[in-house]
Structures are given as structure tokens and as C-alpha cells.
TrEMBL record:
Any GO MF annotation of the entry: methyltransferase activity
GO cellular component: Golgi membrane; Golgi transport complex
Name of the protein this chain belongs to: Conserved oligomeric Golgi complex subunit 1
Taxonomic classification: Eukaryota, Fungi, Dikarya, Ascomycota, Pezizomycotina
Chief localisation class: Golgi
Localisation per UniProt entry: Golgi apparatus membrane
Pfam family, one: VPS51_Exo84_N
Topology relative to the membrane: Peripheral membrane protein
Length: 812
């Protein structure tokens, strides 16, 4: 059963709500209804208060506004009261009376002569003309770099302002002439003289403003502004069509030459200067053909169509107030029309003038291009200039009628290509700086300092700063590994810098081959013209440049090879020639690692490398060979004889002297630099070793066999030997060697020679094997009877070498 909510207006207290007449659901309903009523009343109150507040604010604003308006009204009334004072009204009455009197004194107001109001009016008009011209030139010069300013539709353009300023200047000249020099009033005379001086300055400013407009040749340049500037010049200088065109060509020519006139302390010439001058050149050709003779003729005729004082542009100038001053001017001013020769130039004469200017302007342009190129040595910048200049000429050069664009294009190509070849020769010839660096290093060579080789395992390598990443550490490791000390790095870095430049040149030449030289902006050219131009600019020019580059590189590397050979010949007899050979080998190796891709230069340095490697090998083996000969070959007894095995007993390991010799040789090779030991260098060193080992061993063998088999040494002799520090075991003298010991020593030598043969054996196909001959000689002296014994000894030495050869890695 639905619960009905009692009427809240009948409830006046809480006792009525909680009486027994209402159930619990009804009480809940009453509670909810009370909350809803309270919220509704609160909302209405808020709305009423907000509306009242807004009305109060509006009233306050109205009061403030009314007070400001009252202040304005009171100020206006105060000024009006001040103007209505007795003194002010009296002054106006006196002035009116004077004006009427002066008017009565002048018999003919329109005549403009006499010293009355006409003279004053013309003087005032002259002052107004000066101010109007100055204002026009100021607004015209506020944006020098703009031809058409962003102004409204009713605002005159810059060209219009120049024409108006020229017309006002013409009116000023007429006023000055009408006033003459017989002005008696001192104040009027002073004002006229001041105006004359100002007019001279204004005329120069006007001419400069006209030249600024005529010198503009940007893409957004308005040709109509140029036409109006020419009209302004005609009015200012009273020149006819011929003189106007001559002035225009002269200004454009000066602008072209000025584009290349850069002071020493200013910026250097750049591509922008050439493009600007070329733009002036092409724009002039197009402007003259578009304006002369028809448009210029019509524009000049329009200047003298109406009387000057009825010109609408002058009447609209508020500063002149021609509606007041016009009637005070004489007939020579009121009926004046500008007299300008508009018919003194026909199409044929204009063409002749333009052709003469184009010839001279082309020479100026080419000379400026040459002067600009003289300062540009960056190959990429030259190519960019070539692209900009040729593209601009291809786009605009063909638009001019009566001119063959290919003629000028060929001159541009010749000039630019000549400079490119010159710069290319200069850059390629800088390869000689590598030889100069090497020569300077050899002249200042200090043994132990210049040839100091940094080991890969030096402790100072741990002090490398790694804050900038691993790049520096990697470069240092590579430099140490390849023996690039400071002396080598200077020469190598010099070559790499040169190579980067030449490599960039090669890449730029390839870019030239991919360039397209179409001109489809305004019109579609014939395919034959496009193909011919493409053939010349993208095929012939890059190919000539590529061929010249290859010839220059060939000659440069031949000269460098010859210089290196002369340097080696000059220093090969020095005591430290071995370290010099190492230095040159490293430089040649790094240069040959980055040779240009030319077959002609692939043999660079190959004739010099063998003698250098030969000298390096001779230098490295000196110390190990001396130590081996003085210690190992001088020993007359076998160490480790008790370790021999088999029947007959044969050695199973080399003598300590041979092992030490191989170790010393490996250490000497490592100290010289592991980067030096190419397979050819190792083979060269082995050839020297086998030769010297054979000679030294044969001498030792002869000396050993020449000793008596037995002798009775005296005590004095034994004492002498001991005093000399003989290293024989048990203090045994050389003469005390028995036959058995002699035989054992020869067998040990045979084993050592067999082991060294495994190490120093010549490459397959070699006809010379000196160590094999030594082995045969020693074998004959050992007295070994059986072939199997020798084979066992050779097999044992080969097995030993297989086990230990990695200890002598550089010799493998």
C-alpha cells in the first residue's frame, strides 16, 4: 500500500511529526521532503543574491563611466570658454580685418605676383612640397629591400610614392622659379632659401631611392615598380626615353659590379654574390625587352597627359592643400604639363643598346666569377656554385629574345672548369707534403727517441683516459699494434688527410654525372637541346675532370715514389739505417692500404719495399746471431748428454744455445714490431739467417776439427784458461776434448741443424738451401754409419719442432 506524504505546511513542530498519527515510512518521507524543500529554497536564495550582485556591479560601472564622461565634458567646456575670451576674439577680428585689407590691396589674386597674399601662399606651398617629398621618401625608404610593401588597397606602392615625390619635386621647381630672387619680405625670403637647400638634398635622396628600386632583381621583384621608378627618374632629371633606358642599364651594370666589390675586412666572396650578379644580368635583359619601347613610351606619355596641378595623386596629398593654394599660383604653374621626350627611342635602337650592354655586362659577370672562384678552394663549394650559376642561367638565360644562351653557358663552363682543374691540381700536388714530412723527420732523427716503439703491453697504456668512450683506447691499441709512433703517425695522418680530400673529389665527380639539367619551369624545351646540354654538363665535364684527376694522381704517386727512393738512398748508409728502414716500411704499408683505385698506382713503393725489408732483417738478426756464435757455437761439450736415447744413443732435444737463439730471435722480431713481419719479410730474414748460420757454423766446424785430439795442458795454461772464465764444465780446456766428446758434439750439432732447418727451410721451389748443405757436411763428420739413425734423429727434431713451434710464432 503506497505511503502518502503529509502536507508539510500543516506541520509546525517535531512533536507533530513523531506523534502516533504517522507511521515510520511516513516519517522517512517527511524527512526527505524537508531536505528537498530546504535545498530548493537555498538555490533560489543563491540565484537572487547573484542577480542582485551583478546589478550592483553594473551600477558601479555606470557611475565610474559617467564620472569619466563628466570630466571630458568639463574639459571641453573649459577649452571652449578659453577660446571665447575677449583677447582671443579680439585677435581673430584683427586678423580678419588685416586679411580683408590685404585682399583689397591685391588687384589680381590669380596673377600670383606682388608681395601680398599670393607670394605668401606660394612660399607656404613650397614649404608644404618640401615636407611632402620628405614624408614620401621616408615612407618609401622604410623598407629598402622591398619592392611592394604589405599595405592596404588604398595605400600607394613604393613605385607610386616615387612618382608622386617626383611630381611634387617638379612643382617645387616651378614654385622656386615663380618666386625668383626679388622677394622683399625677409621672412619669406629666408623660408624660400631654406626650401631651396632642402630641395637639393631631397632630389639626391629621390635619385638614390630610384636606384634602389632599379637595382632590385629578386624573384618577387615587381616589374611595374621598375617602370614607375623609371618614370620618376624621367620627371626628376627631365630625361627622355633614351636617357632613361641608358640610366637604367648603367645602374644595373654598377649593381652587377658592386656585387663583387667586397672590402678586405668584410666577408669573403661567395656563391650568393655570383648568383646576385647573374640575376641582375638576366633580369635586366628581360626587363628591357618587356618595357622598351611600348610600355615605357606609354608610361612617359601618361606623365604629360594632364596638367600637373589637376593630378589626382597630388590633390589627395593633404599636406599640399592644393584646394587652397592652387588659386594663388600663376598661369605658368596652373597650366604646366611635364615635357618629356617619349619618342626618341625605337625598338631597333633599344636592341642595339641592350646588345652593347649585354656584351659588357657579360664580361663584368665573368670577371667577377673568376675573382670569386679565386677565393674558393673547397671543391664542394665550387661544384655548388657551378650548379647554382648554371641552373639560374638555364632557367632565365633562354627567356631573353635575340640571345643565344649556349654562348654564355659555354663561357661559364670554361671559366668554372679551368678553376676546377687548377684547384684539383693544387689538392693532388699536396701529396708531396707527405714526403716533406718524412724528410723533416729523417733530418731531425734521434736514435732511441724518433724510432721509439711503444709496446702493446706497456704499463702506460693503462693510463689512457676512457671518459670519452672506447674510441681513444681502440685507436691507441691499433697504433701500438701497427707500430705507429709519433713520427709514423705524422706522415700517415698527412696522407690520410690528403686521401680524404681526394676521395671526396671522386664522390663529387660521380654526383656531377647524376645531375639533371632540365628547364621545365616555364616551358618545355626541345629534347635535342636538353640532351646536348646533358651531354656537355653531366658527361663531358665530369669525364674530363675524372681523366685529369687520374693523370694527376698517377704523376703525384710517381713523384712520391721517386722522393721516397731518394730519401732512402740518402740515408741508407747511416749507422741507424735499420730503424729508418722500419720507419719507411710502416709508412709505405699504411699508404698502400689506402691507394686510389687506379691500376697505375698499384705498384707504388713495390720497388723500394724489398731493400727496406732486407735492411730490417739484417738489423734484427745482428744481436741474436752474435750471441749464438759467441756462446752456443763456442761450446765444445754437450749439455744433457745423459738424456740421449736409443741405440745408438741420439739426442732428443736441441742444445740450450739453439733454443736460446730462437727465443732471442723471436724477442728481437717482437721488439722491432710484429707489424713488420709479413711472410715476405720473414722469408727474407730466414734467407739471411741461413746464409750467416752456414758460414758461422762451417767456421766453427773447421776450428773444432782443427784442434788436437789430446794434449797435456800445463798448470800455467789451465790457470790462464780459468782466469779467462771459460764456461766449459769442470774447468776443462778446449784442448782437453776427447774423440768421444767431439763426436757427441757433432751429433748434437746435426740435431740442432735439423731443427733449424725445420724452422728456416726455404719456400718450395727454391734452388738455394744453404742449411741443408751445412747439414750434409756435419753429417759426414759425425761418423754415423746407419741411415736409420739419421732418419731417427731427423724425425725426432721434426717432432720436437711440431711441439714447440708455437713458442716462436713470428718464425712460423
Amino acid at each position: 500500500m503506497a505511503t502518502t506524504t503529509p502536507d508539510l505546511s500543516t506541520l509546525t513542530s517535531s512533536a507533530q511529526i513523531f506523534s502516533g498519527a504517522h507511521t515510520l515510512p511516513q516519517i522517512r518521507s517527511i524527512h526527505k521532503a524537508l531536505h528537498v524543500a530546504v535545498e530548493d529554497k537555498a538555490a533560489r536564495l543563491r540565484t537572487q543574491v547573484g542577480s542582485s550582485y551583478r546589478e550592483l556591479l553594473g551600477t558601479a560601472d555606470a557611475i565610474v563611466r559617467m564620472r569619466a564622461e563628466m570630466d571630458i565634458v568639463q574639459g571641453t567646456l573649459g577649452r571652449m570658454g578659453g577660446r571665447c575670451g575677449r583677447a582671443v576674439v579680439g585677435g581673430k577680428v584683427a586678423g580678419l580685418g588685416k586679411f580683408v585689407k590685404e585682399r583689397e590691396d591685391v588687384p589680381d589674386v590669380g596673377a600670383g605676383d606682388g608681395s601680398g597674399l599670393g607670394l605668401v601662399a606660394r612660399a607656404k606651398l613650397l614649404e608644404a612640397c618640401v615636407l611632402a617629398v620628405a614624408r614620401m621618401l621616408k615612407s618609401s625608404g622604410s623598407a629598402k629591400n622591398k619592392i611592394q610593401e604589405d599595405t592596404g588597397p588604398d595605400t600607394p606602392s613604393r613605385g607610386d610614392r616615387l612618382v608622386i615625390a617626383a611630381k611634387v619635386l617638379v612643382l617645387s621647381r616651378l614654385l622656386v622659379k615663380s618666386l625668383g630672387d626679388d622677394v622683399t619680405n625677409v621672412q619669406i625670403n629666408a623660408a624660400v632659401e631654406a626650401s631651396k637647400k632642402s630641395l637639393g638634398n631631397l632630389k639626391r635622396r629621390l635619385l638614390r631611392g630610384i636606384e634602389i628600386v632599379l637595382k632590385q632583381a629578386e624573384e618577387q621583384a615587381d616589374r611595374e615598380a621598375v617602370l614607375k621608378a623609371l618614370c620618376a627618374y624621367s620627371l626628376t632629371d627631365n630625361s627622355g626615353a633614351r636617357d632613361v633606358v641608358r640610366h637604367f642599364l648603367r645602374v644595373r651594370g654598377e649593381a652587377m659590379a658592386l656585387a663583387f666589390e667586397i672590402e678586405e675586412h668584410e666577408r669573403e666572396r661567395s656563391t650568393k654574390d655570383v648568383v646576385k650578379s647573374l640575376g641582375l644580368y638576366t633580369r635586366t635583359l628581360l626587363d628591357v625587352q618587356a618595357l622598351v619601347p611600348n610600355k615605357l613610351k606609354e608610361a612617359l606619355m601618361g606623365l604629360k597627359k594632364d596638367r600637373l596641378l589637376v593630378d589626382p595623386s597630388l590633390k589627395e596629398l593633404e599636406g599640399l592643400r592644393l584646394d587652397i593654394y592652387e588659386r594663388w599660383c600663376g598661369d605658368d604653374i596652373q597650366y604646366f604639363k611635364p615635357y618629356i621626350r617619349h619618342d626618341d627611342l625605337d625598338g631597333k635602337q633599344a636592341k642595339e643598346m641592350l646588345m652593347r650592354w649585354a656584351t659588357g655586362g657579360g664580361e663584368v659577370l665573368l670577371q667577377g666569377l673568376e675573382r670569386t672562384l679565386e677565393k674558393v678552394v673547397d671543391f664542394k663549394a665550387i661544384v655548388e656554385m657551378r650548379t647554382d650559376v648554371l641552373q639560374l642561367w638555364i632557367r632565365d638565360g633562354g627567356k631573353a629574345k635575340g640571345f643565344d644562351p649556349s654562348t654564355m653557358l659555354e663561357k661559364f663552363r670554361t671559366t668554372i672548369n679551368a678553376h676546377v682543374v687548377e684547384v684539383l691540381d693544387t689538392k693532388v700536388n699536396k701529396l708531396r707534403l707527405v714526403a716533406s714530412e718524412v724528410s723533416a723527420t729523417l733530418d731531425a732523427w734521434k736514435e732511441g727517441i724518433t724510432d721509439q716503439h711503444l709496446s702493446l703491453w706497456d704499463e702506460d697504456a693503462l693510463d689512457i683516459d676512457l671518459s670519452g668512450g672506447a674510441n681513444q683506447f681502440t685507436q691507441d691499441v691499433i697504433s701500438r699494434l701497427y707500430g705507429r709512433n709519433q713520427a709514423v703517425s705524422k706522415a700517415v695522418n698527412s696522407y690520410r688527410s690528403w686521401y680524404r680530400v681526394i676521395d671526396d673529389v671522386g664522390q663529387i665527380v660521380e654526383q656531377l654525372r647524376r645531375q639533371r639539367w632540365d628547364n621545365d619551369v616555364d616551358e618545355i624545351e626541345d629534347e635535342e637541346v636538353i640532351e646536348q646540354r646533358q651531354q656537355e654538363l653531366s658527361r663531358e665535364d665530369p669525364q674530363k675532370l675524372h681523366d685529369h684527376l687520374n693523370k694527376s694522381l698517377e704523376k703525384a704517386f710517381q713523384d712520391l715514389d721517386s722522393q721516397f727512393t731518394k730519401l732512402w738512398d740518402a740515408h741508407k748508409d747511416r749507422p741507424d739505417n735499420g730503424h729508418i728502414a722500419m720507419y719507411l716500411v710502416r709508412i709505405l704499408r699504411d699508404i698502400r692500404a689506402k691507394l686510389p683505385k687506379l691500376k697505375v698506382v698499384e705498384s707504388f713503393g713495390m720497388a723500394l719495399v724489398p731493400p727496406l725489408q732486407d735492411k730490417v732483417a739484417q738489423t734484427v738478426i745482428i744481436s741474436p746471431m752474435d750471441e749464438f756464435v759467441t756462446s752456443a757455437l763456442a761450446r765444445k761439450s754437450v749439455i744433457g748428454r745423459s738424456l740421449w736415447e736409443g741405440e745408438p744413443e741420439l739426442p732428443t732435444s736441441p742444445s740450450p744455445g739453439v733454443f736460446r737463439f730462437l727465443r732471442d730471435l723471436t724477442i728481437a722480431m717482437g721488439d722491432a714490431g710484429t707489424d713488420l713481419w709479413s711472410p715476405v719479410a720473414v722469408t727474407t730474414m730466414k734467407q739471411h739467417l741461413t746464409k750467416q748460420l752456414s758460414e758461422a757454423w762451417l767456421e766453427a766446424l773447421a776450428a773444432h776439427l782443427a784442434k788436437p785430439k789430446s794434449a797435456e795442458p800445463s798448470e800455467e795454461a789451465n790457470g790462464h784458461e780459468d782466469a779467462e772464465g771459460n764456461n766449459e764444465p769442470n774447468g776443462k780446456a778446449v784442448s782437453d776434448v776427447t774423440e768421444a766428446e767431439r763426436k757427441d758434439l757433432l751429433i748434437q750439432w746435426l740435431y740442432d741443424i735439423s731443427l733449424l732447418r725445420c724452422c728456416f727451410s726455404p719456400p718450395a721451389g727454391s734452388s738455394r738451401d744453404e742449411i741443408k748443405g751445412l747439414e750434409e757436411v756435419v753429417y759426414e763428420k759425425t761418423g754415423l754409419d746407419s741411415g736409420p739413425a739419421r732418419q731417427r734423429l731427423i724425425k725426432s727434431s721434426q717432432d720436437y719442432w711440431k711441439k714447440t713451434n708455437l713458442l716462436f710464432g713470428l718464425l712460423i
